[in-house]
Design a protein that fits this description.
Elements: H1 12-23, E1 28-34, E2 38-43, E3 48-54, E4 58-59, H2 61-71, E5 76-79, E6 85-86, H3 88-97, E7 100-103, H4 104-110
Length: about 120
């Protein structure tokens, strides 16, 4: 049987949707996908960022540690979809260690800011 998901269970449709959203974002100059769910993004201001796309219902601290162990230094960890979320511990750890922890729609909005990691959702 053919494997339909990567080791993080992020579906191709989710990856493809997010890749298209990034390619069509006015603040993104270029996008290169590596290791299936790792996005190397060049912003229009020349900034280079590494973003990992996951599909965790609730992105917790254990998943953040796993991501860093498997992918090394990351600038952002994004959990796809409006229905997904992240735990307060994961967000706090990210803030303390310079890693933006976002839901997909938040990340796309944050890219409009000069410093996207400072983006705060209205829900927060």
């Amino acid at each position: 049987m053919k494997k339909q998901f990567n080791d993080w269970n992020v579906s191709y449709s989710t990856i493809s949707y997010f890749e298209d959203a990034l390619k069509n974002h006015s603040k993104v100059a270029d996008v290169y996908r590596a290791k299936d769910i790792l996005f190397n993004i060049e912003l229009t201001n020349g900034t280079q960022i590494k973003m990992l796309l996951v599909d965790e219902y609730t992105l917790g601290l254990a998943a953040v540690f796993r991501a860093l162990r498997e992918f090394g230094k990351l600038d952002y960890i994004v959990t796809a979809g409006n229905w997904n979320a992240y735990s307060p511990d994961a967000k706090e750890y990210g803030d303390e260690h310079g890693i933006g922890i976002f839901k997909g729609p938040e990340f796309l909005k944050a890219l409009y800011l000069k410093n996207p990691k400072r983006f705060v959702s209205k829900d927060d």
